[in-house]
Amino acid sequence: MENCLSWGEREPTYIIKRPFSNDQLILGGYYQKDDWTPDVLLEQTQDILQRTTKLLPKILTDNPHGNKIEDLEILRVVAGLRPGRHGGARIEREKFGGKLLIHNYGASGYGYQAGFGMAHKAVLLALGGSKL
């Protein structure tokens, strides 16, 4: 299985293969601005399953337990709270109190996917723009 991402009109849809997990996948997502409830809702879970299996039908066709959504082995359903920032992520350097301050926050729902790239940019800023 490969990683997939689709940013639709309403919601992001992503499929991330968990490393070293015997082909376990993380399926998501949902974007709910200013909603901080950690509750998992069945209708959102069903919507995520519909969107991800449409994006990558191999999730169903390669499933040894059957080729319907009901046949998938779901290990866990969780809601992730991912703080965002109006205007997008902030990755900047700033002089503060005579010291260098690197800002790297506010990635919202794409922090998992963009984390390594954001960290790389933050390190480059800390090094003054030098290549690693």
Automatic annotation (TrEMBL):
Molecular function as annotated in GO: D-amino-acid oxidase activity; FAD binding
Domain called FAD dependent oxidoreductase: residue spans: 14-120
Keywords for this protein: FAD, Flavoprotein, Oxidoreductase
Gene3D superfamilies for this protein: D-Amino Acid Oxidase, subunit A, domain 2
GO biological process: D-amino acid catabolic process
Any one annotated GO CC term: cytoplasm
Pfam (any one): DAO
Protein name: FAD dependent oxidoreductase domain-containing protein
